[in-house]
Design brief:
CATH class: Mainly Beta
Radius of gyration: 26 Å
CATH topology: Porin
């Protein structure tokens, strides 16, 4: 075998090793950082009570509105199928449209996503508990009920107090990722954000309750 042949074989081996190393690095990218837009269809947390004469109306009535926010996500792949996943969202202030309306500002979600990851895309299911902070969340402080026979309850004077509060929420859903060249990816999330509102004093006028809320997010990021 000539010297030229040896040099040629050596060059080919180097090229193959470099290619294998590049592919390994590409498949071993574990950290993903992204930003995007999220929309939450919020079921307004009206105070609930079983002590009010129109409690059935309060329990059934629910204003819903779509609030839009911006946020960032970070995900670390523990294995190819399982990753730790966190997200922080900020919702700007919205004008009040009803006599009582909440003002959510910050949302944090931290949990796990698991699924199937291919070369160009990935599909995950996710479960992420966290918090939702309200700049304003109303609760009933006092109720003056007037009963008039034979009509029963005909008038109520309900007093409210607005204050800051942080409640628990849980994101259950799925996400799809599309991998583009130069380590860029697009991520689309959809799921049910379950929000739990604890009871407040006086408890007889502020019963705890839980609401389901559709949340959809779209964003783009980079893989490291």
């Amino acid at each position: 075998m000539s010297k030229r042949d040896l040099i040629t074989i050596a060059i080919l081996l180097l090229v193959l090793c470099a290619g294998n190393r590049a592919r390994a690095q590409s498949s071993d990218r574990r950290l993903e950082v992204s930003g995007g837009v999220t929309t939450l269809r919020l079921s307004e947390p009206l105070p609930r009570s079983d002590k009010l004469c129109f409690s059935s109306v309060i329990a059934q009535q629910a204003y819903t509105r779509n609030i839009v926010g911006v946020g960032g996500r970070a995900s670390y792949a523990v294995t190819r199928k399982i990753a730790l996943d966190g997200e922080i969202n900020y919702f700007p202030a919205k004008p009040t449209q009803h006599f009582i309306q909440s003002d959510p500002r910050w949302q944090g979600l931290f949990g796990v996503k698991a699924g199937v990851r291919k070369k160009r895309f990935a599909i995950f299911g996710k479960a992420r508990p966290g918090f939702l902070h309200f700049n304003t969340l109303s609760h009933i402080t006092d109720v003056a009920q007037v009963f008039q026979q034979p009509f029963g309850c005909v008038f109520q004077d309900i007093s409210y107090l607005d204050d800051k509060q942080t409640v628990l929420n849980l994101d259950l859903g799925g996400s799809v990722e599309f991998y583009l060249p130069k380590r860029i990816f697009i991520r689309i999330d959809a799921g049910d954000t379950i929000i739990h509102y604890p009871g407040k004093t006086p408890v007889e006028f502020n019963q705890p309750f839980t609401t389901p809320n559709l949340q959809v997010s779209v964003g783009a990021g980079i893989r490291f």
